UniProtKB/TrEMBL annotation:
One of its GO terms (molecular function) is acyltransferase activity, transferring groups other than amino-acyl groups. The keyword Acyltransferase applies. Transmembrane segments: none annotated. Keywords: Acyltransferase, Transferase. SUPFAM superfamilies: Acyl-CoA N-acyltransferases (Nat). Residues 3-149 form the N-acetyltransferase domain. CDD domains: NAT_SF. PROSITE patterns: GNAT. It comes from Chitinophaga skermanii. This is Acetyltransferase (GNAT) family protein.
Length: 149
């Protein structure tokens, strides 16, 4: 049975999944990991979604205010042995619904070129590629997307 809950970044299940995410990204990003890790701190994130399967946290996603009307998607992750089942899309949809409830009109996000599964997820969920924004401008390893909510 799948259950999705809303929480904050101090949730221990979220922090556990973020550790797995960070380990996977460190392996993929190699020497570039320190730069990206510095942009992905979770201590002040107030909007986190956790996906539980049989009462075990197996997926997460978060969002934070970027600017008026715009939320940035952060820390999307599904446990490796639970992938390719649509769980990440469920997390993303839950984040989108929450952002709409809060009055946001647009989602933006950054992922890496070394994360083809993430690029596929966002494309499949009707996100459009945009020029890199903010601290990702000029970073060739970054791919940025947006979706109007």
């Amino acid at each position: 049975m799948v259950q999705i809950i809303r929480t904050q970044s101090d949730n221990t299940d979220f922090l556990g999944l973020v550790k797995l995410l960070d380990a996977e990204l460190a392996a993929r990003d190699g020497d570039d990991h320190a730069f990206f890790a510095a942009l992905n701190k979770v201590d002040m994130i107030k909007h986190v979604v956790l996906l539980y399967e049989n009462e075990v946290a197996v997926g997460c996603g978060a969002m934070k205010h970027y600017e008026e009307g715009v939320m940035e998607v952060k820390r999307m992750y599904v446990a490796e042995n639970k992938r390719s089942r649509g769980l990440a899309s469920q997390v993303l949809q839950a984040l989108e619904n929450w952002a709409i409830e809060l009055g946001y009109k647009r989602f933006i996000l950054e992922t890496g070129i070394k994360q083809p599964e993430a690029i596929s997820l966002y494309t499949k969920n009707r996100y459009q590629r945009i020029p890199n924004f903010g601290k990702y401008i000029g970073i060739e390893e970054s791919v940025c997307f947006e979706k109007l909510l």
